[in-house]
Amino acid sequence: MENSRQGRVESLSKSKALDKEPLASLDGQQIKKLLDAWSFSQDIRIYDRLDSTNKKAKDLAKEGAIFEGVIIADEQTEGRGRLGRAWLSKKGTGIWMSIVLRPVFSPNHAAKLTVISALAVSQAVYRLTGTRLLIKWPNDLVLNNKKICGILTELRADKEKIHYAVVGIGINTASQEGDFPEDLASIASSILIETGSLVDRKQLIAQILREFQDLYSHFTKGGDFSSHRALYRDLSASLGKRVRVLGPKEEFEGLAIDLTDSCSLLVRKDSGEIEEVMAGDVSVRGMAGYI
Ligand code: BT5
């Protein structure tokens, strides 16, 4: 499987890549045709422009207007990252999508959704382009030390039950150097900039949903997360690196040594003490820059 690179990538000169294929001209039927009959991928809704696919997904899920499904936009005017940060989502330059799920597992496992999504994106990009995106804990995918993809998982849940989960995935596929403002230019990039290849967004969306479904059902049906964890370790850009953890209350440095089964990062401080860092309201920076 690892070698089944699908030749659907068109190598284009950067100027030619300006003719981006219009995502909005696709209808969900075309993506569905690439997929088998899985519950959440049977309801695929594509918009020209939304404020945020996560916001739309949450509104629809809350109203009961969508059970499980996928919301995609060609452009977001108010794309969101974690902690209210903004996510740049220019028209036609990437994949901005949110998956609505109704997981039956406990909210304690919610962080696994972000890991499953990160694995799905990395696997899908690899299958289509032969390029490996690495995972920067907890929710970034990087290539050549630049951020290519960010994931935002949001839940409506009480103590025992998740009412719905929305997994937002943003991937810069076709952004060009000039698309990023100054503050992002040193940390952000796209598949096109880094590889010179323009990946077909429709194919990539379908492949991500396929990978996601496999990884998700492996966990929900068998309760097994060990293979996800092993894959995550292989793809990690964080493990074995010195990191600075920026939490709401404290900041510290140490060596990122492992990922736990509940998707926390274990960091060994210089004192030898091991700290378990939970995803959520922390940021992690490498000592030599972003990674
Ligand atoms: C994330 O947050 O990385 C999660 C991003 C999730 C975006 C998707 S798009 C579809 C769905 N709908 C939404 O509204 N959101 C989701 P965080 O770890 O907080 O990182 C945010 C930071 O990444 C920003 O503060 C910038 O520094 C940087 N950033 C913003 N836009 C970027 C881009 N297009 N590419 C790379 N980095 C970016």
What does this structure look like?
The chain has 291 residues and is of the alpha+beta class. The chain has two domains: 5-235, 2-Layer Sandwich (BirA Bifunctional Protein, domain 2); 242-286, SH3 type barrels. The protein has seven helices and 14 strands. Strands 2-3-4-8-7-6-5 form a seven-stranded mixed sheet, sandwiched between helices. A five-stranded antiparallel sheet has the order 13-12-11-10-14. The longest helix has 22 residues, at 201-222. The chain is globular and about 55 Å long. Residues 52-54, 76, 79-83, 85, 87-89, 96-98, 139-140, 147, 150-152, 168-170, 172, 184, 188 line the site of biotinyl-5-AMP (BT5).
Averaged pLDDT:
87
Shape category: globular
Q: Which percent band covers the strand fraction? A: 25-35%
Amino-to-carboxy terminus distance: 29 Å
Counting H and I runs of at least 4 residues, what is the number of helices?
A: 7
The helix/strand series, from N terminus to C terminus, equals EHEHEEHEEEEHHEHHEEEEE
Give the neighbour order of strands across the main sheet: 2-3-4-8-7-6-5
| The CATH topology of the largest domain | BirA Bifunctional Protein, domain 2
Structural class assignment: alpha+beta
What Rg do the Cα atoms give? 18 Å
Domain unit count = 2
Instruction: Count the beta strands.
Output: 14
Name of the CATH superfamily of the largest domain: Bira Bifunctional Protein, Domain 2
Please give the CATH architecture of the largest domain: 2-Layer Sandwich
Task: Please give the share of residues in helix.
Answer: 25-40%
